[in-house]
Design goal:
The protein contains 13 helices and eleven strands. With 284 residues, the chain is of the alpha/beta class. The protein has a six-stranded mixed β-sheet with strand order 7-8-9-3-10-11, with helices on both faces. Strands 1, 2, 4, 5 and 6 form a five-stranded antiparallel β-sheet that branches. A hairpin with a 2-residue loop joins strand 1 and strand 2 (18-30). 39% of the residues are buried. Bound molecules: adenosine-5'-triphosphate. Residues 13, 15, 20, 22, 40, 42-48, 58, 60, 212 line the site of adenosine-5'-triphosphate.
């Protein structure tokens, strides 16, 4: 059985210039132990799809779907309080800007212990011990001492490790990583990706990796969804996608990899294709 199952997800924002459809009929499934990458350019609706699935969008968003289940439970008919028990516990999310995602006013120890306080029955001492254990698991040196640090006292890479530790606090079944390495230095990016993949394998978690980077897709994913302007353009296992991409858009995305640069600049998608050509091959 799939962990997360989404069918025909549509998200429309009310904006000053009328309704704007950010996600247009996307369907996806992810199982335990599986890594699904959602890849697409900026604005293709990758983050909004996941935030919608978790019920985390503002009231200006109208979300509809034919099906939205997590672990067999219908998320559409669930009350907000039921959903809050699942989000942060069974489904956790990490974001692109680790420093901005942490609250600057509280120590990182307080923030991870708050998650444990909300979702578990552990007492204060046990929460502290668990926080230390989690920091150690994600490779934060001097874990106990680090708990009393504020986010600004830590590097971007260390803050992302704190975010990962916090996301793992309640042993989630599904982790959604939204561009988890984009804001980090190149050398740190590799370390964080390796850490995520090691933890995913060890724990058998489902992982949704949101990225615009085909290199990250190649290194992490089992299966890939390619998204453009809110629509799913192609879905394939990672080998098939790289070896024999079906849609013109995926081919164009792969051609835009640095390896395929001609001269000193990369080609852009707009140089290859019109929207009409891209949507011709769209799947549901
Ligand atoms: N609250 C909102 N109100 C109106 N439009 C929004 C809102 N949030 C997102 N959007 C729009 O929805 C579209 C999809 O945004 P989304 O953040 O999902 O893109 P993305 O593919 O994740 O890109 P990025 O990698 O830049 O985050 C964008 O055009 C964005 O401007």
């Amino acid at each position: 059985m799939s962990l997360l199952e989404v069918e025909n997800l549509v998200v429309e924002f009310q904006t000053a210039s009328g309704p704007f459809r950010a996600v247009d009929g996307v369907s996806l499934k992810v199982s335990a132990g599986e890594v699904l990458a959602i890849v697409g350019e900026s604005g293709s609706g990758k983050s909004v799809s996941m935030l919608a699935a978790m019920g985390l969008l503002p009231w200006t968003a109208k979300v509809t779907a034919d099906k939205l289940t997590f672990d067999g439970r219908d998320m559409l008919s669930m009350s907000d309080s039921e959903r809050r028990k699942i989000i942060g516990k069974d489904i956790a999310m990490i974001f692109q800007e680790p420093v901005a995602s942490l609250n600057p006013c509280f120590t990182v120890g307080f923030q991870i212990e708050e998650v444990l306080r909300f979702h578990t029955d552990l007492d204060r001492k046990a929460r502290r011990a668990r926080a230390i254990e989690l920091f150690e698991a994600v490779g934060i040196p001097n874990a106990e001492e680090r708990l009393s640090h504020f986010p600004h006292q830590m590097s971007g890479g260390q803050c992302q490790r704190v975010m990962i530790a916090t996301a793992l606090a309640c042993n989630p079944k599904l982790l959604i990583a939204d561009e988890p390495t984009t804001a980090l230095d190149v050398t740190i990016q590799k370390q964080i990706l390796d850490l995520l993949m090691r933890i995913q394998t060890e724990r058998g978690m489902g992982l949704i990796m949101i990225t615009h980077n085909m290199g990250v897709v190649a290194e992490t994913a089992d299966r890939v969804i390619v998204q453009y302007k809110g629509r799913k353009i192609e879905e394939a296992d990672v080998l098939s996608l790289f070896e024999s991409p079906k849609s013109a858009y995926t081919k164009a995305l792969l051609s835009a990899l640095p390896d395929n640069a001609t001269g000193d600049r990369l080609p852009t998608i707009a140089e290859f294709l019109t929207d009409q050509q891209i949507f011709e091959g769209a799947v549901r």
